[in-house]
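Incident review: delayed structure delivery

Summary: a single-chain prediction request sat in the queue longer than the usual turnaround. Root cause was a stuck worker, restarted by the on-call engineer. No data loss occurred. The affected request and its eventual output are reproduced below so the record is complete for anyone auditing the incident later.

Affected input:
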Amino acid sequence: MIIRGVSAKSILDSRKEKTILVSIKTEKGVFSASAPDGKSKGKYEARPYKKSLEGDILALKKFNDYFNKEIIEGFEDLRRIEDIVEGHVGANTLFALESAALKALAKEKNKEVWQIINPDARKFPRLVGNCIGGGKHSQTKEKKPDFQEFLLIPFTKKIKDSLEVEKKIKTTVEQDLKEKDSNFKSKKNDEKGWMTSLNEKEILEILKKYKVRIGVDVASSGFYKRKKYHYENPMLKRDEEEQIGYLSNLIKNFDIFYVEDPFNEEDFDSFAKLLKKFPESLIVGDDLTVTNSKRLRKAIDNKSINALIVKPNQCGSLLEIKRVCEMAVKNGIKIVFSHRSGETQEDILADLAFGFQADFFKIGIDGKERVSKINRLIEIQKSLKPSH
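Output delivered after worker restart:
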């Protein structure tokens, strides 16, 4: 595949905020991909843009001649793209650029994007759906849960059935919230999770009656300062030991299967203590590991996690994502590919999750930007059915 040109422009994401769309021109046509953007970001994430979105668009325009006639034959050739733009664009731009290149390459070879990554991929990830939201994703002046997400993880392996289970529960949960929360107005937050003024215990009380596994994204770095976790609903402060005690009680009392970012992004030791207590639960790193192989290596050495979030635009480089996924598999760490709070209708995340053989796919339950990715996964599953 020979690149004939590269261009970029800004588009709006699901929060109506600007993000980048990159297009690559080849003999086969023009191929575009866009990047999402997160609101709740780990401080070790790569910068989304070098200085600004507009600056990255100009940088790609400037480098257009460098790309011209660049040959990409396989996944590893993305290194050539990275060599050209390294230090000149941010992670969002690099992710969109490499995604567009993968799409173009797939077309050239008459393959699916996931086949460029791993033609032997067969295992499908299980859906992790965001049902109720809080934290930074819920923009409200009223009370809200301190935890950022309350998640549903259906037992079924068939993606289409799994989505149906999530949708049914989410609809019923709306009625539960109407009964239990006098402030509930059937509104949804950035990630299309129900917005409520209930606290985490009250929400878990509702969710525990459903026949699915439950997960939480504590996103605790968002309310950690001066060595304390500052809860607002109800208002109280917890130190590391109290946080461990509190989360341990929640895991036991509500049989929580999935616990993401239970401690702040520096605290590898507390993660390790919780994992030691609950080896059967998934103790998941996101802000802790930020899709970064060096951070993941530290988490592995400290025995801090047994699962990690992969958000492609946290690092931008699909080659780094490959390193992260290979390191995770080698060390028995479960892989959770995840969306961001500011999403686009770009569906390549499904191909990446399947190609890299993720164990879980953390995405919303509704909203066109999120469902587009689930639909793509359903499409892949249907296409492979006859060979099973």
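Verification: The chain is about 40% helix and 20% strand.
Action items: add queue-age alerting; document worker restart procedure.
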